[in-house]
Amino acid sequence: MNLTGNTILVTGGGSGIGRGLAEVLCALGNQVVIAGRRLQVLRDTTAANPGMKSLLLDVESPTAIRAFATEVAGAFPTLNVLINNAGIMRAEKLLAQPEGLLDAEAIVATNLLGPIRLTAALLPQLRRQPRSTIINVSSGLAFVPLALTPTYCATKAAIHSYTQSLRYQLKATAIEVLEIVPPYVATDLMDGAKDPRAMPLDAFIAEVMAILKTQPTPAEICVENVKGLRFAAENGRYDAIFNGLNSAMTDTH
Questions:
Q1: Exactly one of 152, 162, 168, 238 is catalytic; which is it?
Q2: Per DSSP, which regions of 101-181 are E strands?
Q3: In this structure, are residues 110 and 86 in contact, taking their beta carbons and an 8 Å threshold?
Q4: Residue 28 and residue 3: Cα distance in Å, rounded?
Q5: pLDDT tens per residue, range 32-77
Q6: DSSP 3-state helix, strand, coil percentages of the chain (rounded to 5)?
Q7: Is the pLDDT of residue 251 over 60?
Q8: What is the pLDDT of residues 118-167, one digit of tens each?
Q9: What angle do the packed helices 114-127 and 62-75 form, to 10 degrees?
C-alpha cells in the first residue's frame, strides 16, 4: 500500500483507532474523509486536522449506506482506500438478555453487516482506480474471545473470515485487501482509555504505520501486543490464554 497520494475513507474516524489512523494518514498528505454518526465528533476531528473532510454515515442502515456511496462517488471520485473501522462493543449477560436482543443486533449491524454493505457499495468505485486498498479492522478477540462481550468477538471473528474471502475473490483485481488486528488499545471502547493494561493509542498507531511501510505490506497487520491472542491456537496456548484473559477481565467488570 502506498502511504501518500491517496483519497482515504475511514469509518468511525472521529474517535479512537479510526481517528488515530485518519490523523496520521492526513499528515502524510493524503485526502482523508472520516465518516460516522456523531456530527460534533466529526466536526471536532476535522477542525483539529486542516484538510480533512467528514461525512455523516449511519453504518447500521442499508439505505444510508447506498445513499452514502452515491455521495462519495460524486464528492470524492478518486477514492481508492476504504478503512472499515467503525465498531461498537457492549457487555452482554447471556442468561439475562432482553427479548429483542437489541445490543446483539446493533453490534452485528454495525460491526459485520456495516463493513460488508459498505464494501459492496464502494467496490465499483474502488475498481475504477489504478490501485485500491480495503482495510478491515478486526481484533485480537477474533481469535481468543472475551466472554463478557460475546457478540462483539463473534463479529470480529466473522470480519477476519470475510476479509480472507474478499482477498481471495479480488486477487485478480488491482484491489489490495488488508486486515488490522488490534490488541486491547486505550480508547473509549468499553472504557479502555482508563485501563492501564491497554496499549497506548499513539504507540499502537505508530507500530501499525511502521508495518504498513514494509514492502510488501503484510496481509495481517499485527503489532507485538496482539500476537499472543492472534497465534494462541497455533502456539498451543489457547486454553491458558482464554482462561487468563477471561479471569482477568471478569474480575474488573
A1: 152
A2: 132-137, 175-180
A3: yes
A4: 7
A5: 999 999 999 999 999 999 999 999 999 999 999 999 999 999 999 9
A6: 50, 15, 40
A7: no
A8: 999 999 999 999 999 999 999 999 999 999 999 999 999 999 999 999 99
A9: 30
| Number of Cβ atoms within 10 Å of the Cβ of 29 | 12
Decide the pairing of beta strands 81-84 and 7-11. Answer: parallel
Q: Is the C-alpha dihedral spanning 217, 125, 34, 2 positive or negative?
A: positive
Active site annotation includes 152: yes
Q: At what angle do helices 201-212 and 16-27 cross, to 10 degrees?
A: 50
* Nearest alpha-carbon partner for 88 in 67, 66, 68, 58: 58
In the chain, the domains with their CATH numbers are 7-251 (3.40.50.720)
DSSP per position, 151-169: HHHHHHHHHHHHHHHHHHH
Which among 47, 5, 56, 39 has a CA at the least distance from the CA of 23?
47
Look-up of cell digits 479471569:
247
Q: Using the Cα atoms of residue 237, residue 242, residue 247 and residue 252 in order, give the sign of their dihedral.
A: positive
